[in-house]
Amino acid sequence: MSGEHDAQRPSSAAVAMEAAIAALPQQASSRTTEFMLSVGEAKILQFKKKQQIAAVAELVWNALDANATKVDIRFQRSALGAITEIVVTDNGHGMTPDRAHESFYRYGETWKAGKTHTQDNTRILHGRNGEGRLFAFALGDQLTWDSAALVDDTLVGVRASGDADHATIWQVVETEPDREEPGTTVRIRVPEEKSLRYLEHDDAVPNLTAKLAFYLRAYPDVTVTYEGRRLDPADIIVGEPVDLPLALPEEDSDDGPSAVVTVVEWNRRMSDRKMLICNADGIALYEEGKDWSDSIVSFTPYLRSDRFNNLTVDDLHMMPMTHAALLDAAAKAVREYLALRGAQISAAVVRQLKDEGIYPYQEGPTTGTKTIERQTFDVVVTVAREALPSRGMARRLSVDLIRTALESNPGDLHDILEKVLALSLDDRRHLKNLLHSTDLAHVISAATEVTNRLDVIGGLRKILADDALRREFREVDQLHPMIAQNLWMFGDDWAWARTEVGLTNVLQAHLDELGEDVVLENQLVATQPDGRRGRVDILMFRSRRDEDSTERLVIELKRPTVKVGKKELDQIKGYARAIVDNPQYRGVEGCKWRFYLITYDYSEKVLRDIRQKDKPAGLLDDQDEYEVWVKSWAEIFDTAEKKLLFFQRQLNYEATDARVTQHLRESYSRFIPDGLAEDQDIAVHSAS
Predict the structure, then answer these.
(1) Please, which residues have CB within 8 angstroms of residue 275's CB and are 6 or more apart in sequence?
(2) 557: closest CA among 652, 632, 452, 466?
């Protein structure tokens, strides 16, 4: 460390420092001291990464440790509104030249070391580690302290300054005091390119208030203002702070007062939610761990203990190792508290909705899925409680929209919360995390998918079982698109399969094997004079693949009026072999083909072909590289329903005629016969 030298013989480093203090006048007779901190520049510049609100808090703490009763934080702005300078002013006892030399001369050393109270034992001290001033580098690159203090009843002035470009070099200059009373003004010059959005965010004042809450409650004569707004814990605290006792192993207990976690709840969401490590009086010393995230309770946990009173910053950084049991016990206590408080708040919200007559669920027994849906609704409406309209039809409508989304399409919930209720991004993110962690929304989404599938099956059964509707049902623009949207009937994996464009030429080249009026699904055209698409057999094709194998599905949809016999079986078998033997696919390893001939009915004469011993029902041709299946729609529906049977029982679902008809009208209105699209009861015609 370099010693003092006369201001008339500045070093090269001092010359570099002049830019930082050029705008600050000095007396010719003033005594300038320049010194280099013993710690490396990299260590100092790490403070540039500190949180911006935490940096402001450190400046406030320094003022409070100087017995200030008034601390004011102001921003100077450019013509475009950007912050160019931060000014923190206090009426504390200030710094004498000797105190300034002592405070800024050595890194990590301070007059506060070994002390517990401020000058004259007025208040509890916060800092004792000599690092608080360096937090200011998180806000700007040029730092200046102008202070006035009494020395033998005479007011004297001093200025201390530092620059991020020469972070180890500091100057202390004796000046004439720039004020009539003791106090300090800190000025931080902000580079043009630096963003201080966290200081301008809506929750900047609440976050800063949370850090100072216990101190401001303990010393009500202290006033801290932020851009003219007073920090008052009463403005944001909900109820009274709650002390949570900690269950510590005997070996981690000590003879002093027991450590506690004090939970303070806020009336608005905070972006900064780390656990604050405090002394027994609740004075925050350090932030520990990750942000605590809870979608229902907005809070800050304060871990309070006398054992933290004399810890250095390095000691505090080492807490996960040196106080692991204490931190684990604190985290467990907080989790238990959140579970209890979340349940209490949710119960109060639900009770209020019931009192208003707008809670959308009835008391009494219900199915497992409805119970989960109801639980999810309770969580969502609790998180959104502040965003719900306070009264009237708008409130009822918002509640109904949430219930409808959960019941039918949970994917709509995000839009409702964002666009209808204007729920904040932060709240929506926390709610998403909560629902994801509990899997409630996934269960509801799966339940919705199951009921929709059962409704599709029931609706198609209804159409094909009715002679009039079946005759009216067109393959090209009705049957085909409905099946194309519900390929899960042939196995869940096919629900996400895609048409393989490269198959078209090969499938088309051998299409005559299937007889007349068979059209590839991607070549369907209108054939009726009135413009409606006609009656043909349709060939659908899909592929799915991974790194090791490829599977291809080819489905011939026969018109409901066609009764499949021996000729159709020979055609589909011949077609399958022609495709597989095509030079483009012959001998390709890892490729499996499945050909399906789907019909409304087939002749009894083909039963021996599709009911072979030791073969699954419907399997006509079974080879290493391909399979050919013949299935009726009734068999397809029955197989699909059996896969859904377990879920159907859990849902207590019944595919009533009215329900499946309504589902077809709402989801497939373009694809159903006109007679079914009418909004009236449809008589079921007997087979003639």
Answers:
(1) 261, 287, 288, 289, 292, 300, 301, 302, 303, 330, 331, 334
(2) 632
The phi, psi pair for 161, rounded to 5°, reads -145, 150
Say if residues 187 and 87 touch (Cβ distance below 8 Å): yes
| Among candidate residues 553, 542, 554, 531, the one with its CA nearest the CA of residue 476 | 531
| CB-facing half-sphere around the CA of 633: CA atoms within 13 A | 23
List, as own/partner pairs, every contact residues 679-686 make where C-beta atoms lie below 8 angstroms and the sequence separation is at least 24, other chains included.
682/466, 682/469, 684/462, 684/465, 684/466, 685/466, 685/467, 685/468, 685/469, 686/467
Instruction: Evaluate whether 562 touches 599 at the Cβ level (below 8 Å).
Output: yes
DSSP for 322-368?
HTHHHHHHHHHHHHHHHHHHHHHHHHHHHHHHHHHT-----SS---H
Instruction: Give 53: exposed, middle or buried? Use CB within 10 Å, 0-12, 13-18, 19+.
Output: buried
pLDDT in tens, 94-123: 988 888 877 776 654 454 544 445 566 566
The sign of the torsion formed by the CA atoms of 564, 567, 569, 573 equals negative
Mean pLDDT: which of 47-51, 153-157, 584-588 is highest?
153-157
| Six token digits for residue 181 | 């009373």
Q: What is the rounded CA–CA span in Å between residue 301 and residue 309?
A: 18
Q: Is 358 exposed, middle or buried (0-12, 13-18, 19+ CB in 10 A)?
A: middle
Pairing mode of beta strands 275-278, 260-266: unpaired
117-173 pLDDT, tens digit each: 556 656 666 654 556 678 888 899 999 999 999 999 899 999 988 888 887 888 889
What is d(CA 456, CA 655) in angstroms, rounded to the nearest whole number? 10
Distance CA 104, CA 100 (A): 6
Tell me the whole-structure pTM to 2 decimals: 0.50
For 326-349, b where at least 16 C-beta lie within 10 A, e where not — what string? bbbbbbebbeebbeebbeebbeeb
Sign of CA dihedral 561, 566, 571, 573: positive
Extended beta strands in 255-326, E state: 260-266, 275-278, 284-288, 299-304
Quickly tell me which residue has 């049957």 as its tokens: 479
d(CA 156, CA 97): 8
Tokens of 621: 């041709």
pLDDT digits (tens, 9 = 90+) for 242-286: 999 888 776 566 656 688 999 988 887 776 577 888 877 777 777
Q: 547 burial class (0-12, 13-18, 19+ CB within 10 angstroms)?
A: exposed
How far apart CA 189 and CA 87 sit, in angstroms, is 9
Measuring CA to CA, which residue among 158, 132, 2, 130 is closest to residue 54? 132
- SS3 of 243, please? strand
What is the distance between the alpha carbons of residues 306 and 257, in angstroms, rounded to a whole number?
7
Q: Is 537 in contact with 518 (CB distance < 8 Å)? A: yes
CB-hemisphere CA count at 13 Å for 431? 22
- Rounded CA separation 246/286 (Å): 19
CA 311/CA 308 separation, integer angstroms: 5
pLDDT confidence of residue 23 = 38
Give the helix ranges, DSSP H, for 409-492: 413-415, 425-438, 440-465, 467-472, 480-484
**What CA–CA distance (Å, rounded) separates 93 from 123?**
13
* Residue 262 identity (one-letter amino acid): T
CA–CA dist 16, 171 (Å, integer) = 11
Task: Count Cβ atoms within 10 A of the Cβ of residue 613 and give its class: 0-12 exposed, 13-18 middle, 19 or more buried.
Answer: exposed
Instruction: Please identify which residue in the block is written with the tokens 């529906």.
Output: 637
SS3 at position 480:
helix
Q: Do residues 641 and 461 touch, judged by C-beta distance below 8 A?
A: no
